[in-house]
Design a protein that fits this description.
The complex is a heterodimer. Chain A is of the alpha/beta class. Helices cover about 35% and strands about 20% of the residues of chain A. Chain B is an alpha+beta fold. The chains are: A alpha/beta, B alpha+beta.
């Protein structure tokens, strides 16, 4: 089963994303900020957050594919390395599912 | 009493005249009729300055001078002759004094009015200046003189020359220069423009208009006003930044609400009728909130000149058809007849999504402001090089004095606020920006109580019907 890490600063939204990812048939993974970065197939990340930046730094050069899920529109400088898709909140979860499906099919 | 701006000189001249006439009468040995006549103008001149009482006294003194001269040089000195001369000279002095009093009174009134006008002009916020046809300053108030110094305008030259001299210090020197030169070329033009100084960041709004009559009706003059609007612009920038920040932050809770609503859909069948009704209300409110947030963010993009359009082949008729179909249920609920008038294709190069947003907004407005039994019509025509969409309604209309503000942010017509019609006052701002982004224009005609017609004109492509 594909493992998807959620890096979302809002706790309610983080729970929602994990449940949606589970419904889509993937395994949601929680990050433990003090430990090493988890082994995952993709990251759903809010690029406009300290949580996201901190996580990406910990991945170093081995950043998995990143699906940005942001409150800001796509702009130069905001999109992190490893970004493969950019969704603006509140994108529907059907769209998130389609994005992940496309990513894992590649 | 003061008649002229140099009263001491006038009085001195008149006294000298009286004395000289007295001396001349003695020197010539003739203090006859001509001597008395020669005293009259000096008496009158002094009377003008001294008023009725003073003029009368001067007449008595002049008669005394005549009498003295007549005694020394020889001349009529009998009581009758002296009385005649006394009456004549006193009459001259008193009459001149009365005339001088009236003139002085008028002058005082004039000075009082001029003083009030100066006080009025000097106490405004705006710098105000009046120039003649050549641009020379005829009148300026204290704020203008202060602003001129603060802006570093050169102290000499015509007003257009002095303003042109600071072109390179503005943030848009080319545009500023062109505006100034255009004003010089077109004496009848009325202009309102803003400019910012690079070094200080201060922003000024200038207004200029021809003045019908300057210099006794010669015409060709101009009025110029200058107001600093730095604080206004900073306030607007802060407001825009605040609105954008809040709107972005609202996206997170909105995502949670709409996401959990999506998840609830799976369990909706377990709810009773009332619960499902509540869920429907939450969905509608969420959708409305989303639209408001999207509108606010779009306006922020427009204000920052960052509106992006995804141009491609599109058909205005197809866009209008989709709008009418989507708005059908709302029109039906309200009892408003909504129709798209028949016509052919209307091809253009445009952003179909954004143009759909424009027509959605116009049709939604038309329905909102039309009572049951009324009608909303959408017409699409390909008119030469232009693709035009017109949305007409038989609604409440918009008061004439409010129509000019309809495309201003957050403005809501009194007909909307009186009837508590929901809205943010952003729809037409967005519509105009999208249409203008396509190189088109939007026009509104409305008669209160009869209805409104909004026409969108966009550059079309050949092949339209």
């Amino acid at each position: 089963m594909r493992r998807v890490l959620v890096a979302e600063p809002d706790s309610d939204l983080s729970v929602l994303l994990e449940r949606q990812i589970e419904r889509l048939g993937y395994q949601p993974v929680r990050d433990t900020p003090d430990g090493p970065p988890p082994d995952v197939d993709a990251v759903v990340l809010e690029p406009a957050s300290a949580v996201g930046h901190s996580l990406l730094r910990r991945f170093g050069d081995a950043v998995p594919p990143v699906v940005c899920f942001s409150i800001y529109p796509r702009e130069a400088g905001l999109e992190p390395p490893g970004s493969v898709a950019y969704l603006v909140k509140p994108a529907s979860f059907a769209k998130l599912g389609a994005t992940l499906q496309l990513l894992f099919a590649a | 009493m003061r008649l002229t701006s140099h009263p001491q000189s006038v009085r001195g001249l008149a006294v000298a005249g009286l004395a000289a006439t007295f001396v001349a009468m003695i020197a010539t040995g003739d203090a006859g009729h001509l001597g008395a006549i020669a005293l009259a103008p000096w008496t009158g001149l002094l009377g003008l300055e001294l008023g009725v009482v003073g003029g009368t006294a001067v007449g008595v003194v002049a008669t005394g001078l005549y009498s003295g001269a007549a005694e020394i040089a020889g001349g009529p000195t009998g009581p009758l002759e002296l009385s005649v001369r006394l009456v004549a000279l006193v009459a001259v002095g008193a009459a001149a004094g009365a005339a001088g009093g009236r003139v002085a009174s008028s002058e005082r009134a004039y000075r009082a009015v001029a003083s009030l006008q100066t006080a009025l002009l000097d106490s405004t916020l705006d710098g105000i200046c009046l120039t003649d046809a050549r641009g020379n300053a005829l009148l300026s108030n204290a704020p203008l003189r202060r602003i001129s110094v603060e802006m570093g305008l050169p102290p000499t030259g015509t007003v257009p020359e002095r303003l042109l001299a600071i072109a390179d210090r503005t943030t848009e020197p080319q545009r500023y220069r062109e505006r100034m030169l255009a004003l010089a070329r077109e004496p009848d033009v009325v202009s309102v423009d803003e400019f910012e100084l690079k070094d200080s960041g201060r922003v000024f709004r200038g207004y200029t208009a021809p003045v019908a009559s300057v210099e006794g009706g010669a015409g060709g003059g101009r009025i110029w006003t200058l107001r600093e609007v730095t604080a206004d612009r900073e306030l607007e920038r802060l407001r825009d930044a605040f609105v954008a920040a809040v709107s972005h932050e609202l996206r997170t809770p909105l995502t949670s609400i709409s996401g959990f609503l999506e998840m609830l859909a799976d369990e909706e069948h377990e709810l009773g009728e009332t619960g499902r009704g509540y869920l429907g209300i939450i969905r509608r409110s969420t959708a409305r909130l989303l639209r408001i947030v999207e509108d606010l963010l779009l306006v922020a993009q427009i204000e920052a000149d960052r509106l992006e359009l995804q141009l491609g082949p599109a058909d205005l008729r197809e866009i209008a058809a989709a709008t009418v179909e989507a708005a059908g249920p709302a029109a039906e609920d309200k009892g408003v007849a909504l129709e798209l008038l028949p016509g052919g294709p209307c091809p253009l190069e445009g952003d179909a999504h954004r143009l759909g947003q424009v027509l959605d907004n116009l049709v939604a407005n038309a329905i909102k402001f039309t009572d049951a039994g009324g009608a909303v019509q959408v017409a699409v025509v390909h008119d030469g090089a232009w693709a035009r969409a017109t949305v007409s309604d038989t609604g409440v209309g918009i008061p004439t004095d409010e129509q000019g503000q309809l495309f201003s942010r957050f403005f809501r017509a009194s007909t909307a606020t009186r009837r508590a019609v929901p809205g943010t006052g952003l729809g037409l701002v967005i519509a105009r920006a999208i249409v203008e982004g396509h190189g088109g224009g939007i026009a509104l005609e409305s008669v209160e109580g009869e209805g409104t017609r909004v026409t969108v004109a966009l550059p079309g492509q050949s092949g339209g019907a």
